[in-house]
Amino acid sequence: xxxxxxxxxxxxxxxxxxxxxxxxxxxxxxxxxxxxxxxxxxxxxxxxxxxxxxxxxxxxxxxxxxxxxxxxxxxxxxxxxxxxxxxxxxxxxxxxxxxxxxxxxxxxxxxxxxxxxxxxxxxxxxxxxxxxxxxxxxxxxxxxxxxxxxxxxxxxxxxxxxxxxxxxxxxxxxxxxxxxxxxxxxxxxxxxxxxxxxxxxxxxxxxxxxxxxxxxxxxxxxxxxxxxxxxxxxxxxxxxxxxxxxxxxxxxxxxxxxxxxxxxxxxxxxxxxxxxxxxx
Amino acid sequence: xxxxxxxxxxxxxxxxxxxxxxxxxxxxxxxxxxxxxxxxxxxxxxxxxxxxxxxxxxxxxxxxxxxxxxxxxxxxxxxxxxxxxxxxxxxxxxxxxxxxxxxxxxxxxxxxxxxxxxxxxxxxxxxxxxxxxxxxxxxxxxxxxxxxxxxxxxx
Amino acid sequence: xxxxxxxxxxxxxxxxxxxxxxxxxxxxxxxxxxxxxxxxxxxxxxxxxxxxxxxxxxxxxxxxxxxxxxxxxxxxxxxxxxxxxxxxxxxxxxxxxxxxxxxxxxxxxxxxxxxxxxxxxxxxxxxxxxxxxxxxxxxxxxxxxxxxxxxxxxxxxxxxxxxxxxxxxxxxxxxxxxxxxxxxxxxxxxxxxxxxxxxxxxxxxxxxxxxxxxxxxxxxxxxxxxxxxxxxxxxxxxxxxxxxxxxxxxxxxxxxxxxxxxxxxxxxxxxxxxxxxxxxxxxxxxxxxxxxxxxxxxxxxxxxxxxxxxxxxxxxxxxxxxxxxxxxxxxxxx
Lengths: 280, 155, 334
Known about the structure:
The complex is a heterotrimer.
Chain A: H1 2-14, E1 20-26, E2 33-38, H2 64-67, E3 72-76, H3 78-89, E4 98-103, E5 129-131, H4 146-152, H5 156-168, H6 175-179, H7 204-217, H8 227-231, H9 238-253
Chain B: E1 11-16, H1 20-29, E2 38-43, H2 51-59, E3 64-69, H3 80-98, E4 105-109, H4 115-132
Parallel strand pairs in B: 1-2, 1-3, 3-4
Helix pairs in contact in B: 1-4
Chain C: E1 2-6, H1 7-19, E2 23-31, E3 34-39, E4 66-75, E5 78-83, E6 91-96, H2 98-101, H3 103-107, H4 118-125, E7 127-132, E8 158-162, E9 167-172, H5 175-181, E10 186-188, H6 204-213, H7 219-224, H8 232-236, E11 243-250, E12 253-260, H9 281-300, H10 310-314, H11 322-330
Parallel strand pairs in C: 2-6, 6-7, 7-8
Antiparallel strand pairs in C: 1-9, 1-10, 2-3, 4-5, 4-12, 8-9, 11-12
């Protein structure tokens, strides 16, 4: 499978159809897998594909250092591809300026990452081509909100105590923001001063303000790639926060970010039929 | 020994200029008494209310927050309140999972003619909040051994 | 003949220190795959088994992530400045990795260079560092390449060396370390085990030559394209020390604070004019390597890196400094 992936990419580079292939590389067996940017056909052997291809490479499309390399071919898993759909809907990229190579994915990580255990997008749907096939029928019947429901059994005070401890570890390194393909603002609100909007300090107040802001700015936009959770150096379970909003979007608005390219952006639109129970 | 002053809740109300603010004003001109615990912050439209404003209110020791605007269909800017409504539906979920006390955040539609409703809503919220007591938004952080490093920055 | 302490007695001693009102910081298993240096509430929390390389470093206990330097209050037209009251407290940084401990003497000259930082100095004075020599290392470790090693004592007041038998030889490095354990050890003929550290992966001299001569090389762009510009490396690094001064307050007053900053953030060198001399990630990455391996040694005589590997482990895309340092040796960029 890797050979057909490499061949496609080599041909794209050789014909100058693209100037860079954004994919996964590994400097040796057992070493960490990381993003690579292949520019010359003779370097195509650098591309790998295995169960450790975690990074959502779509995050690189916002980087000017990568944009300046020319037209890109990008390797995406199904979860990554959802981010592409959202970016296109938000007018952040022109699909025709990008060559998308989808890869059939049976899941990442040993043991499988949480997101992979309930994945419904194992085959990218909008790629220029898809490499690989699903070797086995995948069981996707597992309920998606188990963890969330378990968590919500706690009282509000218990939940708050949990988050004070969890978010208390936050260093404000912004790894979560940098790895996120949907965090593409050139000037993030947390970086605004004169006046300061969100405290940059790594204090309970500052950390809550940051994470509330980021989670809510991703409401209806987060595609659940969980890269933020993986990237956090102090193991904060950001997935829970994103899931609570994703479930609300689904249950209240029948909306799932990045699934339907025709769907209106959730918080960019409204309906006269929006029903709530809490407004007096 | 003097008696401890009774707890007076601080209520912060984010209201839209065209409906609720005028409704509150009507309550005033009609001499309808309502508790002075409420601090009114006027914005052009509920659509402009950033969720961060509610968080800031709690950071600054508000005990309850009210968000109020024009009824659906009556927005001065046509659709601001529709956007706001959708935003609030999602924001409440985030607050719920964080364990923020949702009983301290209130949303209403109060029109410019509803001075009486303003009086009722503020009176109710104030009473309810007085009963609930002061709100420690981020309850004292962590354990006794590292208060220095996780110090409560709310001052 | 050496002085030893058993694991049990060490945990008991932690309890004693805590009841004396000291803060005791040590590695703790916070989650199944997360180890952090954290203040301990009891001796049982101290993590001693396995490959213990906490995701953070001990620097935050002498150089906190957020520190108020003074408060300001508006009183009518007057402005009151109130010095910060730092609740300094005796603390023991226990079972620190030698690569964490060695960072402190590297940082000392920086915080006492053109200005004596009383916050840092007071915390240093009230801190006793007890390191624990390493029995294991992983692929990201490279202390031996920067002149350190698994039993390095620089920066420690005492070092514990495992005998492999659930006890440690206690080797004081100075009077402070000796006083801390005095009366709590017993004599023993036991010898500590000394596993070798990681093999050397590059030569600092070679690195410095490259840094001096290859400023304009395309190597920097090629090697660091995958850097996403977060602060995970800088914040978990034992020697990174950049900070930002911020004012946090409102119409009645507030505090002026020092917060950690990272040279990898895109706005790190943004000028008030709008010009940014390092507005491309490759320039920021190059600067990081230059600072650590050329500029800081030229200024203070020490490499600003202890080879702990945290940058590589915590980097979401496994960049860190090691892969760059190895690549500049081989000329390969992967």
